[in-house]
Automatic annotation (TrEMBL):
Pfam annotation, one family: DeoC
Annotated InterPro entries: Aldolase_TIM (IPR013785), DeoC (IPR011343), DeoC/FbaB/LacD_aldolase (IPR002915)
GO CC annotations, alphabetized: cytoplasm
Species whose genome carries this gene: Mesorhizobium ciceri biovar biserrulae (strain HAMBI 2942 / LMG 23838 / WSM1271)
Reaction equation(s) it catalyzes: 2-deoxy-D-ribose 5-phosphate = D-glyceraldehyde 3-phosphate + acetaldehyde
Record GO biological process: carbohydrate catabolic process; deoxyribonucleotide catabolic process
GO molecular function: deoxyribose-phosphate aldolase activity
Pathway(s) this gene product operates in, as recorded in its UniProt entry: Carbohydrate degradation; 2-deoxy-D-ribose 1-phosphate degradation; D-glyceraldehyde 3-phosphate and acetaldehyde from 2-deoxy-alpha-D-ribose 1-phosphate: step 2/2
Keyword field: Lyase, Schiff base
Protein's UniProt name: Deoxyribose-phosphate aldolase
Residue ranges, annotated region (Disordered): 1-34
Alphabetized Gene3D superfamilies for the sequence: Aldolase class I
Length: 349
Protein backbone atom coordinates (compact mmCIF):
# COMPACT_ATOMS: atom_id res chain seq x y z
CA UNK A 1 0.00 0.00 0.00
CA UNK A 2 1.35 3.43 -0.88
CA UNK A 3 1.50 6.27 1.62
CA UNK A 4 1.08 9.87 0.61
CA UNK A 5 3.76 12.37 1.56
CA UNK A 6 2.22 15.63 2.72
CA UNK A 7 3.42 19.19 2.16
CA UNK A 8 4.06 19.39 5.90
CA UNK A 9 6.95 16.99 5.33
CA UNK A 10 8.89 19.67 3.47
CA UNK A 11 8.40 22.54 5.87
CA UNK A 12 7.67 23.58 9.43
CA UNK A 13 4.05 24.66 8.95
CA UNK A 14 0.92 22.74 9.84
CA UNK A 15 -1.25 21.35 7.06
CA UNK A 16 -3.34 24.22 5.70
CA UNK A 17 -4.75 24.83 2.24
CA UNK A 18 -2.53 25.94 -0.63
CA UNK A 19 -1.23 28.58 -1.23
CA UNK A 20 -0.44 29.57 2.38
CA UNK A 21 0.91 26.12 3.10
CA UNK A 22 3.13 26.07 0.01
CA UNK A 23 4.65 29.45 0.79
CA UNK A 24 5.41 28.46 4.38
CA UNK A 25 6.90 25.14 3.44
CA UNK A 26 9.35 26.56 0.91
CA UNK A 27 10.85 28.98 3.43
CA UNK A 28 14.10 27.98 5.12
CA UNK A 29 13.62 27.65 8.89
CA UNK A 30 15.33 30.69 10.48
CA UNK A 31 17.26 28.56 12.99
CA UNK A 32 18.62 26.18 10.35
CA UNK A 33 22.43 26.47 10.44
CA UNK A 34 25.00 23.92 9.37
CA UNK A 35 28.45 23.70 10.95
CA UNK A 36 30.98 23.38 8.15
CA UNK A 37 32.74 20.04 7.81
CA UNK A 38 36.40 20.47 8.87
CA UNK A 39 37.38 17.07 7.55
CA UNK A 40 39.42 14.48 9.44
CA UNK A 41 42.58 12.45 9.05
CA UNK A 42 42.41 9.81 6.36
CA UNK A 43 41.18 6.69 8.16
CA UNK A 44 41.51 3.63 5.95
CA UNK A 45 40.10 1.43 8.69
CA UNK A 46 36.90 3.47 8.85
CA UNK A 47 36.66 3.33 5.06
CA UNK A 48 36.93 -0.44 5.10
CA UNK A 49 34.16 -0.65 7.70
CA UNK A 50 31.65 1.01 5.35
CA UNK A 51 32.80 -0.28 1.98
CA UNK A 52 30.41 -3.23 1.66
CA UNK A 53 27.59 -2.45 -0.78
CA UNK A 54 24.74 -4.74 -1.77
CA UNK A 55 23.50 -3.49 -5.14
CA UNK A 56 20.36 -5.62 -5.20
CA UNK A 57 19.40 -4.41 -1.73
CA UNK A 58 19.88 -0.79 -2.80
CA UNK A 59 17.77 -1.35 -5.89
CA UNK A 60 14.99 -2.94 -3.81
CA UNK A 61 15.05 -0.01 -1.40
CA UNK A 62 14.83 2.51 -4.23
CA UNK A 63 11.96 0.62 -5.87
CA UNK A 64 10.14 0.52 -2.55
CA UNK A 65 10.53 4.25 -1.96
CA UNK A 66 9.43 5.35 -5.40
CA UNK A 67 6.39 3.07 -5.44
CA UNK A 68 5.30 3.32 -1.83
CA UNK A 69 5.81 7.01 -1.12
CA UNK A 70 3.53 8.94 -3.47
CA UNK A 71 3.09 12.70 -3.60
CA UNK A 72 -0.27 13.96 -4.80
CA UNK A 73 -2.12 17.14 -5.80
CA UNK A 74 -1.44 20.19 -3.58
CA UNK A 75 1.24 18.24 -1.76
CA UNK A 76 3.02 17.77 -5.07
CA UNK A 77 2.97 21.50 -5.82
CA UNK A 78 4.69 22.28 -2.52
CA UNK A 79 7.32 19.59 -3.07
CA UNK A 80 8.03 20.90 -6.57
CA UNK A 81 8.58 24.36 -5.14
CA UNK A 82 11.01 22.78 -2.71
CA UNK A 83 12.83 21.17 -5.65
CA UNK A 84 13.28 24.61 -7.22
CA UNK A 85 14.67 26.01 -3.96
CA UNK A 86 17.25 23.18 -3.94
CA UNK A 87 18.31 23.62 -7.56
CA UNK A 88 21.65 24.67 -9.05
CA UNK A 89 20.39 26.09 -12.34
CA UNK A 90 23.15 25.15 -14.73
CA UNK A 91 24.56 25.94 -18.14
CA UNK A 92 27.74 24.05 -19.08
CA UNK A 93 27.67 24.02 -22.86
CA UNK A 94 30.28 24.62 -25.52
CA UNK A 95 28.14 27.44 -26.92
CA UNK A 96 27.75 29.35 -23.63
CA UNK A 97 28.11 33.11 -23.92
CA UNK A 98 27.87 36.01 -21.49
CA UNK A 99 24.41 36.81 -22.82
CA UNK A 100 23.24 33.23 -22.36
CA UNK A 101 24.49 33.29 -18.77
CA UNK A 102 22.68 36.60 -18.14
CA UNK A 103 19.45 35.07 -19.43
CA UNK A 104 19.94 32.03 -17.21
CA UNK A 105 20.44 34.31 -14.21
CA UNK A 106 17.31 36.27 -15.13
CA UNK A 107 15.38 32.99 -15.14
CA UNK A 108 16.83 32.11 -11.73
CA UNK A 109 15.70 35.46 -10.33
CA UNK A 110 12.19 35.03 -11.78
CA UNK A 111 11.77 31.26 -12.22
CA UNK A 112 8.02 31.25 -12.89
CA UNK A 113 5.67 33.13 -15.18
CA UNK A 114 3.62 35.78 -13.41
CA UNK A 115 0.33 33.92 -13.88
CA UNK A 116 1.79 30.85 -12.15
CA UNK A 117 3.11 32.94 -9.26
CA UNK A 118 -0.27 34.62 -8.85
CA UNK A 119 -2.17 31.36 -9.19
CA UNK A 120 -0.12 29.69 -6.46
CA UNK A 121 -0.28 32.77 -4.27
CA UNK A 122 3.47 32.81 -3.69
CA UNK A 123 6.09 35.49 -3.89
CA UNK A 124 8.43 34.90 -6.79
CA UNK A 125 11.21 36.53 -4.82
CA UNK A 126 11.21 33.88 -2.09
CA UNK A 127 11.24 30.77 -4.30
CA UNK A 128 14.33 30.74 -6.44
CA UNK A 129 17.07 28.27 -7.33
CA UNK A 130 19.77 28.15 -4.68
CA UNK A 131 22.54 28.84 -7.21
CA UNK A 132 23.49 29.21 -10.83
CA UNK A 133 26.35 27.00 -12.01
CA UNK A 134 28.65 28.10 -14.83
CA UNK A 135 32.12 27.70 -16.29
CA UNK A 136 34.89 29.89 -14.85
CA UNK A 137 34.92 32.48 -17.70
CA UNK A 138 31.31 33.39 -16.84
CA UNK A 139 31.62 33.65 -13.05
CA UNK A 140 31.98 37.44 -12.99
CA UNK A 141 29.01 37.81 -15.35
CA UNK A 142 26.84 35.60 -13.14
CA UNK A 143 27.96 37.34 -9.94
CA UNK A 144 26.97 40.69 -11.40
CA UNK A 145 23.64 39.38 -12.70
CA UNK A 146 22.44 37.88 -9.39
CA UNK A 147 23.91 40.48 -7.06
CA UNK A 148 21.63 41.23 -4.12
CA UNK A 149 19.24 38.32 -4.78
CA UNK A 150 20.69 35.73 -2.41
CA UNK A 151 21.38 33.36 -5.30
CA UNK A 152 24.80 31.73 -5.07
CA UNK A 153 27.24 31.41 -7.95
CA UNK A 154 28.85 28.00 -8.39
CA UNK A 155 31.78 27.46 -10.73
CA UNK A 156 32.84 24.10 -12.12
CA UNK A 157 36.57 23.81 -11.77
CA UNK A 158 39.73 21.66 -11.76
CA UNK A 159 39.80 20.84 -15.48
CA UNK A 160 36.11 19.92 -15.55
CA UNK A 161 34.82 17.40 -16.59
CA UNK A 162 37.80 15.01 -16.49
CA UNK A 163 40.17 16.53 -13.92
CA UNK A 164 43.23 15.64 -15.97
CA UNK A 165 45.37 18.76 -15.57
CA UNK A 166 48.34 19.23 -13.23
CA UNK A 167 47.22 19.84 -9.66
CA UNK A 168 48.83 23.29 -9.63
CA UNK A 169 46.75 24.30 -12.65
CA UNK A 170 43.57 22.98 -11.07
CA UNK A 171 44.21 24.88 -7.84
CA UNK A 172 44.87 28.08 -9.76
CA UNK A 173 41.52 27.67 -11.49
CA UNK A 174 39.75 27.39 -8.13
CA UNK A 175 41.52 30.48 -6.82
CA UNK A 176 40.63 32.45 -9.95
CA UNK A 177 36.93 31.58 -9.65
CA UNK A 178 36.90 32.56 -5.98
CA UNK A 179 38.54 35.89 -6.83
CA UNK A 180 35.85 36.50 -9.44
CA UNK A 181 33.17 36.01 -6.80
CA UNK A 182 32.12 32.35 -6.91
CA UNK A 183 31.04 31.23 -3.45
CA UNK A 184 30.65 27.57 -4.40
CA UNK A 185 33.20 25.49 -6.30
CA UNK A 186 32.33 22.18 -7.98
CA UNK A 187 35.56 20.22 -8.44
CA UNK A 188 36.04 16.92 -10.22
CA UNK A 189 38.32 14.13 -9.09
CA UNK A 190 40.70 12.25 -11.41
CA UNK A 191 38.98 8.87 -11.65
CA UNK A 192 42.31 7.11 -12.15
CA UNK A 193 43.16 7.70 -8.50
CA UNK A 194 40.08 5.68 -7.55
CA UNK A 195 40.87 2.84 -9.96
CA UNK A 196 44.41 2.68 -8.58
CA UNK A 197 43.15 2.82 -4.98
CA UNK A 198 45.45 5.83 -4.46
CA UNK A 199 43.35 7.05 -1.58
CA UNK A 200 46.00 9.14 0.15
CA UNK A 201 46.86 10.97 -3.07
CA UNK A 202 43.17 11.62 -3.70
CA UNK A 203 42.72 12.78 -0.12
CA UNK A 204 45.68 15.16 -0.33
CA UNK A 205 44.42 16.65 -3.60
CA UNK A 206 40.98 17.35 -2.16
CA UNK A 207 42.51 18.84 1.01
CA UNK A 208 44.45 21.22 -1.26
CA UNK A 209 41.27 22.07 -3.17
CA UNK A 210 39.43 22.82 0.06
CA UNK A 211 42.25 25.16 1.10
CA UNK A 212 42.12 26.91 -2.28
CA UNK A 213 38.37 27.46 -1.84
CA UNK A 214 38.77 29.45 1.36
CA UNK A 215 35.27 30.42 2.46
CA UNK A 216 33.71 29.16 -0.76
CA UNK A 217 31.93 25.85 -0.30
CA UNK A 218 33.46 22.79 -1.94
CA UNK A 219 31.38 20.27 -3.88
CA UNK A 220 33.34 17.19 -4.94
CA UNK A 221 32.16 15.49 -8.14
CA UNK A 222 32.92 11.77 -8.15
CA UNK A 223 31.92 10.98 -11.73
CA UNK A 224 30.03 7.91 -10.54
CA UNK A 225 29.19 6.76 -14.06
CA UNK A 226 32.92 6.24 -14.61
CA UNK A 227 33.72 4.51 -11.31
CA UNK A 228 32.49 1.04 -12.34
CA UNK A 229 31.48 -0.28 -8.91
CA UNK A 230 29.41 0.89 -5.95
CA UNK A 231 32.36 0.00 -3.73
CA UNK A 232 34.44 2.59 -5.56
CA UNK A 233 31.61 5.10 -5.16
CA UNK A 234 31.41 4.50 -1.41
CA UNK A 235 35.16 4.71 -0.88
CA UNK A 236 35.55 7.85 -3.00
CA UNK A 237 32.65 9.42 -1.09
CA UNK A 238 34.35 8.72 2.23
CA UNK A 239 37.70 10.12 1.07
CA UNK A 240 36.04 13.32 -0.18
CA UNK A 241 34.25 13.88 3.12
CA UNK A 242 37.35 13.14 5.19
CA UNK A 243 39.23 15.69 3.08
CA UNK A 244 36.72 18.41 3.93
CA UNK A 245 34.07 18.34 1.20
CA UNK A 246 30.95 20.35 1.99
CA UNK A 247 28.99 18.37 -0.61
CA UNK A 248 29.55 15.18 -2.54
CA UNK A 249 28.11 15.18 -6.05
CA UNK A 250 27.34 12.28 -8.37
CA UNK A 251 28.31 13.42 -11.83
CA UNK A 252 29.55 16.08 -14.18
CA UNK A 253 26.58 15.53 -16.47
CA UNK A 254 29.03 14.59 -19.22
CA UNK A 255 29.36 10.87 -18.40
CA UNK A 256 27.44 8.24 -20.34
CA UNK A 257 25.64 7.35 -17.09
CA UNK A 258 24.82 10.19 -14.73
CA UNK A 259 22.83 10.35 -11.49
CA UNK A 260 20.91 7.17 -10.66
CA UNK A 261 18.92 6.51 -7.52
CA UNK A 262 20.79 3.33 -6.45
CA UNK A 263 24.16 5.10 -6.74
CA UNK A 264 22.67 8.10 -4.96
CA UNK A 265 21.48 5.84 -2.16
CA UNK A 266 24.99 4.44 -1.73
CA UNK A 267 26.39 7.97 -1.44
CA UNK A 268 23.64 9.00 0.96
CA UNK A 269 24.47 6.07 3.22
CA UNK A 270 28.13 7.11 3.15
CA UNK A 271 26.97 10.55 4.30
CA UNK A 272 25.03 8.92 7.13
CA UNK A 273 28.05 6.87 8.19
CA UNK A 274 30.27 9.96 8.18
CA UNK A 275 27.73 11.86 10.26
CA UNK A 276 27.51 9.03 12.78
CA UNK A 277 31.31 9.00 13.03
CA UNK A 278 31.97 12.76 13.18
CA UNK A 279 28.71 14.60 13.88
CA UNK A 280 29.09 16.70 10.71
CA UNK A 281 26.34 16.96 8.10
CA UNK A 282 27.50 16.69 4.47
CA UNK A 283 25.45 17.88 1.53
CA UNK A 284 24.50 15.79 -1.48
CA UNK A 285 24.07 16.86 -5.10
CA UNK A 286 22.79 14.52 -7.81
CA UNK A 287 23.46 15.92 -11.27
CA UNK A 288 23.01 14.86 -14.86
CA UNK A 289 19.89 13.45 -16.45
CA UNK A 290 17.45 14.87 -13.88
CA UNK A 291 15.08 16.60 -16.28
CA UNK A 292 11.54 15.77 -15.09
CA UNK A 293 9.48 16.88 -12.13
CA UNK A 294 8.78 13.23 -11.32
CA UNK A 295 12.51 12.49 -11.08
CA UNK A 296 13.02 15.44 -8.73
CA UNK A 297 10.29 14.12 -6.43
CA UNK A 298 11.94 10.70 -6.33
CA UNK A 299 15.21 12.28 -5.20
CA UNK A 300 13.48 14.39 -2.55
CA UNK A 301 11.71 11.31 -1.18
CA UNK A 302 15.05 9.48 -1.04
CA UNK A 303 16.62 12.29 0.99
CA UNK A 304 13.66 12.60 3.35
CA UNK A 305 13.44 8.87 4.01
CA UNK A 306 17.17 8.12 4.30
CA UNK A 307 18.59 11.24 5.94
CA UNK A 308 15.63 13.24 7.25
CA UNK A 309 14.20 16.74 7.09
CA UNK A 310 17.49 18.73 7.24
CA UNK A 311 18.44 17.31 3.82
CA UNK A 312 15.47 19.03 2.21
CA UNK A 313 17.21 22.39 2.59
CA UNK A 314 19.52 23.90 -0.04
CA UNK A 315 22.48 23.99 2.32
CA UNK A 316 22.43 20.17 2.37
CA UNK A 317 20.76 19.18 -0.90
CA UNK A 318 21.01 20.43 -4.46
CA UNK A 319 19.96 19.28 -7.90
CA UNK A 320 22.37 19.99 -10.72
CA UNK A 321 19.97 20.65 -13.58
CA UNK A 322 19.57 22.61 -16.79
CA UNK A 323 16.11 21.61 -18.06
CA UNK A 324 14.39 20.48 -14.84
CA UNK A 325 12.98 23.93 -14.09
CA UNK A 326 11.08 23.92 -17.39
CA UNK A 327 9.24 20.72 -16.55
CA UNK A 328 8.51 21.82 -12.99
CA UNK A 329 7.00 25.05 -14.28
CA UNK A 330 4.85 23.07 -16.72
CA UNK A 331 3.67 20.76 -13.93
CA UNK A 332 2.76 23.72 -11.72
CA UNK A 333 0.82 25.23 -14.61
CA UNK A 334 -1.04 21.95 -15.02
CA UNK A 335 -1.78 21.94 -11.29
CA UNK A 336 -3.47 25.33 -11.70
CA UNK A 337 -5.17 24.98 -15.08
CA UNK A 338 -5.41 21.29 -15.90
CA UNK A 339 -3.48 21.90 -19.12
CA UNK A 340 0.14 21.73 -20.27
CA UNK A 341 1.70 24.42 -22.42
CA UNK A 342 4.52 23.89 -24.91
CA UNK A 343 8.09 23.89 -23.64
CA UNK A 344 8.94 27.06 -25.56
CA UNK A 345 6.57 29.00 -23.31
CA UNK A 346 8.95 28.29 -20.43
CA UNK A 347 12.21 29.37 -22.00
CA UNK A 348 15.36 28.89 -19.96
CA UNK A 349 18.02 30.94 -21.66
Amino acid sequence: MSSTIREADVGPSKVTPLPARAAANTAVPPDHRIARNPGMKLDLGFMESVRSVNRSALERRVASLTKRRSIKADNQAAWLLRAVACMDLTTLNSNDTEERVRRLCAKAINPFRRDIVEGLGISGETIRPAAVCVYHPFVATAVDAVRGTGIHVAAVSTAFPHGLAPLSTRLQEIEASVRDGADEIDVVIPRGLVFGAKWRELYNEIVSMRAACGDAHLKVILGTGDLATLRNVMLASMVAMMAGADFIKTSTGKESVNATLPVGLAMVRAIRAYFEETGYLIGFKPAGGISTAKASLDWLVLMKEELGRPWLEPDLFRFGASSLLTDIERQLEHHLTGHYSANHRHAMA
